[in-house]
Backbone:
C-alpha cells in the first residue's frame, strides 16, 4: 500500500511559478513510476507528466512541455512538478499517482492516487 500526499497548490498569477510536491509513504517508492494528472471543473482528468522509477526518463503533455518539469528524490520519497509560465488554462486540481507498470499516459494504469491539490491561475 502506498499513500500519496500532494502539497504546494495555491493561487498564482499568469506567468508565475510554483512547485507541487507529492510525498509517498512506505519503503518502495523507487519501485513506482510517478505521474501527475489534473482535472479542471467540468473536464475529464488529463495526463500532465510522468517520470520513470530512477528518474532518467520523463514524459510531458504537449500543453505543458517546455513550461513544467517533473523530478523525483527517491531518498525523500517525493516527486515534484515545477510549473513555470503558468496560464489560466492550467487551473485545475492536480493529482499525483503511482504505477508499477510502464503505461504512463492513462490514469487507468496507475495503482495509487493522492487527494489532489488546487492550482488556480489568475488572469
Residues:
Amino acid at each position: 500500500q502506498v499513500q500519496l500526499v500532494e502539497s504546494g497548490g495555491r493561487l498564482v498569477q499568469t506567468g508565475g511559478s510554483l512547485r507541487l510536491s507529492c510525498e509517498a509513504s512506505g519503503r518502495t517508492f523507487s519501485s513506482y513510476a510517478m505521474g501527475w494528472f489534473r482535472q479542471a471543473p467540468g473536464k475529464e482528468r488529463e495526463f500532465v507528466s510522468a517520470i520513470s522509477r530512477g528518474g532518467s526518463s520523463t514524459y510531458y503533455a504537449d500543453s505543458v512541455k517546455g513550461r513544467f518539469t517533473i523530478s523525483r528524490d527517491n531518498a525523500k520519497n517525493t516527486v515534484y512538478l515545477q510549473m513555470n509560465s503558468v496560464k489560466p488554462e492550467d487551473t485545475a486540481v492536480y493529482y499525483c499517482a503511482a504505477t508499477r507498470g510502464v503505461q504512463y499516459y492513462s490514469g487507468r494504469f496507475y495503482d495509487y492516487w493522492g487527494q489532489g491539490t488546487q492550482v488556480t491561475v489568475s488572469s
In short: The chain has no helices and eleven strands. The chain has a mean pLDDT of 96.
